[in-house]
Write a structure and sequence with these properties.
Oligomer: homodimer
Number of domains of chain A: 2
Number of helices of chain A: 6
CATH topology of the largest domain in chain A: Jelly Rolls
CATH superfamily of the largest domain in chain A: Jelly Rolls
Order of helices and strands of chain A: HEEEEEEEEHHHEHHEE
Radius of gyration of chain A: 19 Å
Largest interface: A-B, 49 and 49 residues
Strand order of the largest sheet of chain A: 1-8-3-6
Shape of chain A: globular
Number of strands of chain A: 11
DNA sequence: CGAGTCGTTGAACGGAATCAATCGTCGTGG
DNA sequence: CCACGACGATTGATTCCGTTCAACGACTCG
């Protein structure tokens, strides 16, 4: 049960994939909810609007993230979902998922485990972001991500910027901080592998 | 099903409450896991240690937060849980919860809804924290928390500091920012109620 | 009444954001 | 096939805003 993914668990309910142009909407606030999604490429932003029309961004889903799980328990979507980049999303039928969960209680447990893991990782990320110093923030994040045995982590090629986004810092700051950590001897970088020394 | 809380859903599995002195451990990494918890008062920090002994804070649970849900699916705890303040936690028996979920599939669905809501709010908080400017960060958070109809939110008395913690900013900055927003006319404060104007 | 804490404001400093420029790589289309 | 554009990675210089340190009044609780 341990490391199954959202996509694997709900594979039977998968319907199709959708391509979205930048700025295109996957769904709008108030639409009847029929599906949940995972982002395969690009980025999709969930925006809620207050009565006065203020926009409140609830989430920006990146590749690998799931989207609109809460719609499982709601008749309508409570947000707009807008592609901030040209994007591809996988779709999963809400009705089929609910039926699956009801018919196969053990799948419900797996699903709970899935969510519990996600909560854990979100909380860990929040904890990272509560660290003020850029240096310590990066170091903490690296320790979090690194393989516990080898103390290495691989940077998904071409995406130090994505990492900067996760860390909520300017990408320039991340480059500089990594360079400093390396000259301090705290880490090593060859190609796309970062090794941490203690 | 909608707005039930963790405590309500799992009330039948509740065992006792534990008091912890500051610095006391609720459990240690590697202990067999028997319970999950919610924090009633104080604060409990989850810390994982790497092989080299580096500490990685995974989460700091505050009053209202649940704790160690992931232990439902693990034989042991993977973190130390240490009280950072004198604390009280409510305990829920893991075995009873699992049994409940297996026997009452509809409770599993409720539990999933519970987690989905939590994921949503964690993601919203992450989104808030990705806003650099203190002013916009506070404003975004207020819009997020305010009652959609009245555009008001009440500050749980004596806890602007707790709010500053959530926003990951120095509490002095929060005071100043609120003062500025008020003099800008964006918000009003009387007693413990903040009203947002658009 | 004193200790502790929250809320508030002031002043100064420091570090991260920002603006900017360069280099390398990759993909695309002429 | 090469020129061009786009984008990631990197480094420099400057600005600015949030942190930090500090002090004070108000309030609560023992």
């Amino acid at each position: 049960m341990q490391n199954i993914s959202f996509g694997e668990l709900f594979a039977p309910a998968r319907t199709s994939a959708k391509s979205l142009g930048q700025g295109e909407f996957l769904f709008r606030q108030g639409d009847p909810s029929s599906s949940l999604y995972t982002v395969l490429a690009g980025g999709v932003r969930l925006v809620r609007y207050t009565l006065e029309g203020n926009a409140v961004v609830m989430h920006t889903a990146r590749p690998g993230d799931s989207l609109a799980e809460a719609s499982l328990f709601s008749e309508i979507y409570h947000c707009d979902a807008e592609a901030v980049l040209p994007s591809i999303v996988a779709c999963y039928d809400k009705g089929k998922i609910l039926a699956m969960l009801r018919e196969h209680p053990e799948k419900s447990l797996t699903c709970i485990a899935l969510f519990a893991r996600q909560v854990r990782s979100l909380r860990a990320l929040l904890e990272v972001r509560s660290i003020r110093s850029a240096r310590d923030r990066v170091l903490h994040y690296l320790l979090l991500q690194a393989d516990p045995v080898t103390m290495e982590m691989s940077i998904p090629a071409g995406s130090l910027k994505a990492m900067a986004l996760k860390l909520a810092m300017a990408h320039e700051t991340l480059y500089r901080t990594l360079a400093n950590l390396e000259s301090e001897g705290k880490i090593n970088r060859n190609a796309s592998i970062i090794k941490i020394h203690h």
